[in-house]
Fold this protein.
Amino acid sequence: MKRMYRARPEDGIAWVTGASSGIGSAVALELARRNFAVAATARRTSELASLAKNSQAIFSFPGDITDRAAMAGLVGQIESVHGPIALAFLNAGIYLVAERHNFTADVAWRTFETNVGGTINCLDPLLAAMMRRGKGQIAVTSSLAGYGGIAGSAAYGATKAALIYLAEALKLTYARNDLTIQIVNPGFVQTEMTDHVKFKMPFLMSAEQAAGLVCDGFEKGGFEIAFPRRLAYAFKALRLLPYSLYFPLMERAARRASR
């Protein structure tokens, strides 16, 4: 089997989306600590400016991933200023709390447009540029929630399942072209996205801890970077169960979480 390409700082710049807070911000800082120049993208320009102040190796490139033309232009802008994007961490995503209460098309489509559509908008120009160079590394943030249905997470979980499938298909498609595709499946990480959670989150970790695991995975991990391992294994085991067992277990977990 051909060895996976691993981006190095001398190969080019790293691009991180969703970099204004949480895992994205922490990964940008960790990559800079590991000697990468980092292009940081998010919609919130003030948070990006604050992030860039923390490291001379981080450069602010504001943008909205749901804007297809803007993302194509942004990839070109980054590369014209800083050289090739060797490593991309497509991390931007949303979870709308409203979906915990009831299902609506508005909430579902907004979630899909950002989590799936936004990722696709970034992939299009990235893959084209990396194919021209004959190498590159792309990691997409999904979630352990993408492994199977969870109450109150129909849209969010469905987008994460779609991203897992997308990454799997891209890996198979581009494996012979020296393009490394990875999927990042975190469990519970203390971020703005989890601030609304009222139940006790098992194996909760800080964004900084998560960033260390993600960047270790960039350097030496396989296709999937999943953490924490005990929770990931538990979710994987659940998906092996027949529905007659899966649904009662998940319904029980949902009742406990709502207490």
